[in-house]
Automatic annotation (TrEMBL), chains A, B:
Catalytic activity: S-formylglutathione + H2O = formate + glutathione + H(+)
A UniProt-annotated Pfam family: Esterase
Lineage of source species: Bacteria, Pseudomonadati, Pseudomonadota, Alphaproteobacteria, Rhodobacterales
Species of provenance: Roseovarius marisflavi
Gene Ontology terms, MF aspect: carboxylic ester hydrolase activity; S-formylglutathione hydrolase activity
GO biological process, one term: formaldehyde catabolic process
Name of the protein in its database record: S-formylglutathione hydrolase
Active site (catalytic residues): 146, 222, 254
Length: 277, 277
């Protein structure tokens, strides 16, 4: 693992690190914020999964999460959204290939050799950061934006017992019924739709739900509401009386201005779960 | 004036607007955050001047100021750092020409026709925003980063009575004795160094000071400390018993991570002055 940069930030350290990923078959870069409490021992961690076109860097610089994480003594991890590089498959569209991993393990060519973002975020990166940094693997929560909100919700419901709480900003809620999903799942997972269900938050919510609190915020002026389909997730969540809140926030759109505005609330929400016994 | 974008942000509006500037002889773009209180009447305003290579956008997306401004009911203005465009003079160096206006009125060719950033920030833009938005011109304060910290300090001391408070993050404090200053002043203002003094915060502090509180923060790990020369400003400020604080912040560098970490403190500092009677 190599240190790309480390900046003092809210009394802690905002680092960027690169490493050779077995899961993705190449170099991967991630951001990690460690609050000053990490000097004294392992701290809880909140995963932040980013959306289409983002790298590890966007949320790290624009979401305004570090201040609230510092206040709560929580680490933040910012993984990249896909494998990258000249030897990695790509597509001209912004929503397929590099920058658009959708947090699945691709089984279809040309994506299968590198696009294993599920394994990367679920297995490889957690092992790496708990081994190399003062992070308490028993206290993890997860959030994300748009495609990353989809990732956060599907990982949280797919890995029972892993995360204490899950939240999402403007998540893709029902990708099997959306142009943000059907194209990508066909490419990465193949045409057999039965293989897609494990990566659809609304289906997972209907079938299994989440054993802990869920918080989902979407803006009423989000320009991608028809692609996100928050109503489908809400239907499923309320049908099973899922603990948590699914909210529409007046006036907000799909931008980082939305996320930064609600970030204090989400970090506080996760802190409550992470510090509960 | 044209609206480039408007996003709901912390209950207010983060807008971006462009207009034809008389001072700079071409189109200029600026960011303006209006808290929700602006719906009910004019609000105080904090100017944020950016550093080398920045546009109106960097601080607007990375400095994390809007949340604190919203909490205090204060507007934020983010001007660009220079005139721009193909018809505007430029230089290959990152620290001269476009993106490096240094908040002066250039008198030398090829810069003189467009590089009038002092007039733009001191006269034209204040008139524009107080006329078009709910901004109280009687309650203005100013801050900035690096070259923008230099701009904030020199404007505040040069325009007595205009601003109620001034702060700066890692400002260029003594440009007449720094490679961040001598080259640019020679280019923009000519070789006669007597013309430079009005744009050197340390000289202004020695000669006139500021009639109000001053807050300056610089990181102990700032990679540009030798160019910034905070010690010269501190000497001048303490010699005249200037009201305020000039501080070194342990571990921080020159990045936006530094600014965002200290932003709550700076906005609170300005709020106290802006809301005093």
């Amino acid at each position: 693992m190599q240190t790309v940069s480390e900046n003092t930030c809210f009394g802690g350290i905002q680092g960027v690190y690169s490493h050779t990923s077995k899961a993705c078959g190449g170099d991967m870069t991630f951001g990690l914020f460690l609050p000053q409490e990490a000097k004294d021992g392992p701290v809880p961690v909140l995963w932040y999964l980013s959306g289409l076109t983002c790298t590890h860097e966007n949320a790290m610089t624009k979401a305004g999460a570090q201040g609230w994480a510092a206040e709560q003594g929580i680490a933040l991890v910012f993984p990249d959204t896909s494998p990258r590089g000249e030897s990695v498959a790509n597509d001209e569209a912004y929503d397929l290939g590099q920058g658009a991993g959708f947090y699945v393990n691709a089984t279809q060519d040309p994506w299968a050799p590198h696009f294993k973002m599920w394994d990367y975020v679920a297995e490889e990166l957690p092992a790496l950061i708990t081994e190399n940094f003062a992070i308490d693997g028993e206290r993890q929560s997860i959030t994300g934006h748009s495609m990353g909100g989809h990732g956060a919700l599907t990982l949280a419901m797919g890995l029972a017992g892993r995360y204490r709480s899950v939240s999402a900003f403007a998540p893709i809620c029902n990708p099997t019924a959306s142009d943000w999903g059907r194209k990508q799942f066909t490419a990465y997972l193949g045409a057999d739709e039965s293989k897609w269900a494990a990566h659809d938050a609304s289906i997972l919510m209907r079938e299994t739900g989440f054993d802990g609190p869920v918080l989902v915020d979407t803006g009423t002026n989000d320009q991608f509401l028809d692609l996100l389909r928050p109503e489908t997730l809400a239907d499923a969540a309320f049908a099973r009386r899922q603990e948590g809140a699914i909210r529409m926030q007046k006036g907000y759109d799909h931008s980082y201005f939305f996320m930064s505005s609600l970030m204090e609330d989400h970090v506080s929400f996760h802190a409550e779960a992470l510090y509960a016994d």
